[in-house]
């Protein structure tokens, strides 16, 4: 009887032992381009926290990585997942981000792929409401942090020891990594001359690398973005598409004066609570340091990014008493940080009062996506026009 009970345990131990002995390369060699194509709009954990799928995507030279947050998850007939394909862009959209994916999460992700990003065109959507009193919280960080990406970042020879030191100093500010021995060893090395140890030990790395590769082979999740909208825009020019987006937005926001999606407005009304957002739009937010870390990482990897800075819903934020001057100060500081580092930027924060650019309180959509899609394709084609971006005086 005891033997029968022990057999499953013995068998699982043997299988796990075999799993550990198989080289990582055996798993990664099974990946096929079709898997990467399916994952391009999946927004699943393999893409968000993994390494292998993104590496395969970058090596293929067929994709345009779009880093963002919750706006990427929103179903919208003008979403770049649809429009870039409709317009037959030279590169396919590859979405990286989820709600709470802010500057530091993107910086770690990009740092993990440093050796594959030289001259790569990528888009990064910056949401000014990230710049809060508290910055990235411990809970949001824990839910989105990838130890595997961090391990690849610190091993990557394309990044300077000085930049790695800055990453280590930022990461130990989160309670789950405060006592991490490797990060603390990086911080306390003199003259950045550290060459011992890794963020993960060999056993952890073995498990994470194989798990990541297996998920990239078998774990392609379908999302609502796989359901293509019935409307086709290939025959429209950008002006015609903006006009249609204006009509579409008006049709879907009839219940309120803020230009919000009717479904969202209905949910907002059901909540019946005060809309206190005073903690947002802090000009001294720690998020600005994370943005600078992201910018400096992009400079070291020699990528070709287009920063897209989106507004909040101006009418709504006025209504909930978040002062316009407070918002403008954050908009301006983001713009200054990006432009002073000679990065391309498409800043549409001056459209915060334009109808149907924002579909709720903060999420880009409808006409907003049309503006952005045009500039993404211009970036892909090498014809970015900085004159169309907001100019501060």
TrEMBL record:
Q: Which UniProt keywords apply?
A: Cell membrane, Membrane
UniProt entry tagged with the keyword Phosphoprotein: no
Name the pathway it acts in.
Answer: Cell wall biogenesis; lipoteichoic acid biosynthesis
InterPro entries in the cross-refs: DltD, LTA_DltD
Asked if Nucleotide-binding is a keyword of the record, the answer is: no
Pfam families (alphabetical): DltD
By sequence similarity, the record places it as follows: Belongs to the DltD family.
Name of the protein described by the UniProt record:
Protein DltD
Please report the organism this UniProt entry assigns to the protein.
Mammaliicoccus vitulinus
Instruction: Name the gene behind this protein.
Output: dltD
